[in-house]
Amino acid sequence: MTAACAIDSAEGQLLRLCARPRLTEAQRATARELVAHCTDWGSVVELASMHGVAALLLRHLKETDAPREAIDALLSGTRAAVVGSLIVEREIGKLRELFARERIEWLVVKGVPLSVDAYGEVGLRPAGDVDVLVREADAARTLALLRAEGFTSMLPLRDADWADVPGAMNEWALVRGAATVDLHWALGSWGGAYPLTTEEALAGRREVTCGTVVVPTLGLTELVVYLAVHAAKHFWERFEWTASFRAVAARDDVDWDAVAAHAAALRARRRVALGLRLVERLMGERLGGDRFDDVAGVAGIAGAIAERIFARPHDEPGMWPQAKLTMQLMDGPLDAMRVPLEALFAPRVTDWEALSVPRQLRFLFPLLRPFRLVMKYGRRAVGKGGR
User: Which residue(s) pair with 153 in the sheet?
Assistant: First the structure.
């Protein structure tokens, strides 16, 4: 990617303003003024696509004097997103029938339901994969059912390996045609940085109508906190995460007292506070009242994230700088201590892919992971040193 802009440039302000499903009359007037001052439309289009806000931007640019070339480029990209959403919607409908027949309780995390929750309709955010959550006790049976329905593992698996996956991992990716399903049997991480249990998630689930399909998804209180936790895990690097968090958090039916209590119970107050500060810095709105004002130290992190969000990408910071920032976002010292332990010992799908381990020894994945990381990052360090 070569596109970049400052967040307070005309291009940056336009992207930030238009990442909403609706604009006020005053905001529409501001959008027209910003369009008149934009000069780097290539960066606007490329950044909107990369950050997942192209459909939202297109909706508002149609009411301005934006160049026809920019409109056409956004149209081209959003058509593919709409097609992707329809594929995902159809796939969710098939999953609903399958799980109802087999009496498996489930829900969809983020994805198409989030588009409806945040923006009111399907297709205004990239659909991506279908993230499905089931109980761990149902994981092996669900994997077998999906395999019987024509899904294949994204990573090569021998017949004997399928039954071993739930005991070694907490998620697995499967594909069928153009659809990808990420099957999860735990939302929380190995280190307990997000201790919402599957039972709690299923107990609080809602149903959201997505086109022609009614989809079970996270409760609204749980969703606000989960969006902040998920985005913090990835350092809020995609602007649409801020936009959808803002859209959900700004809903009239969000109970902020319940959100504050839920965040405290899950030890996620700092991560929710970071999301709120990012919304304030990037989208000019203050949400949540004063419930998170006592959380210290997140304003500076929010400012650093905001300043670089539309900048050119840099080299990956690496595992340990990422772990350090994640530790700063934990609510307490014990949670912070779990971060490096998780980074070192929690098995990932990449471990399964990289390590050829006999079935009988797969319980050793947590002990083998540190050696794989030493080899991986050691080679990188040697490579950089030789330049």
Answer: 174
- What is the 3 state secondary structure string of 7-42? CCCHHHHHHHHCCCCCCCHHHHHHHHHHHHHCCCHH
Taken as a whole, the chain contains a residue count of 387
Q: What is the pLDDT at residue 230?
A: 92
Could you give the angle at the alpha carbon of 45 between the alpha carbons of 41 and 51, nearest 5°?
135
d(CA 33, CA 10): 9
92 inside domain: no
Question: In terms of domains, do 25 and 40 share one?
Answer: yes
Nearest residue to 338 via CA among 347, 327, 324: 327
Prediction pTM value? 0.89
Q: What is the DSSP string of 179-238?
A: EEEEEES-SS-TTSSS---HHHHHHT-EEEEETTEEEEE--HHHHHHHHHHHHHHTTT-S
Give the integer Cα–Cα distance in Å for 80 and 122: 13
Instruction: Give the other-Cβ count within 10 Å of 252's Cβ.
Output: 4
For residues 158 and 264, state if they share a domain. Answer: no
Range of the domain at 267: 219-324
Q: How many domains does the chain have?
A: 3
- Residue 15 located in a structural domain: yes
pLDDT reading at 328 higher than 50: yes
Q: Which of 297, 324, 351 is the last residue of a domain?
A: 324
Classify residue 207 as exposed, middle or buried by CB count within 10 Å of its CB (0-12, 13-18, 19+): exposed
Q: How far apart are CA 263 and CA 335, in angstroms?
A: 14
How high does pLDDT run on average in the chain?
A: 88
Q: 195 and 252: one domain? A: no
Separation of alpha carbons 85 and 80, rounded Å: 9
Strand partners, 209: 214
